[in-house]
Amino acid sequence: MFIINVEAAIRRDNKWLMITRSTKEGHAGGTLSLVGGKVDLSDMGMEILERTVKREVLEEVGVEIGDAVVFVYSSSFVIRDGRNVINMVFLCEYASGTGYSVSPDEVEDVHWLTYAEIMNHPKAPPWTLESVRRAALAHRQRTR
User: Fold this and answer.
1) By the 8 A CB rule, do 19 and 32 touch?
2) Integer Cα distance of 141 and 23 in angstroms
3) Residue-level pLDDT at 52
4) Domains plus CATH for the chain?
């Protein structure tokens, strides 16, 4: 069995929406991350991943995203308790909201950062750097 996790790569004014995960989080607490979360059984139905991305972004940072939710890539990892996770990153269009920590138990802080700021951030783990790198490439390809 896998946990399905989705993450949103949201770009506005040449900056990416990033969070610092709460230190209370069991996985990667205190690190820089894209916004996201797990697929719930209540999300069942058509476009489950896309709806989950929208729900998680609104629940965690109060930002609304548009309908264009585009798959970027997937990866997998194992969390401390041995459960397997499939992680999927989506390029999303910003719609509204400034971004704030709606859920302090999940999100310690919210940031709008440039690509360079993310790539040089001391709390950015390798998987976050890879996700942002791929999202930036997908964004460039879509805006050509």
Assistant:
1) yes
2) 35
3) 95
4) 2-142 (3.90.79.10)
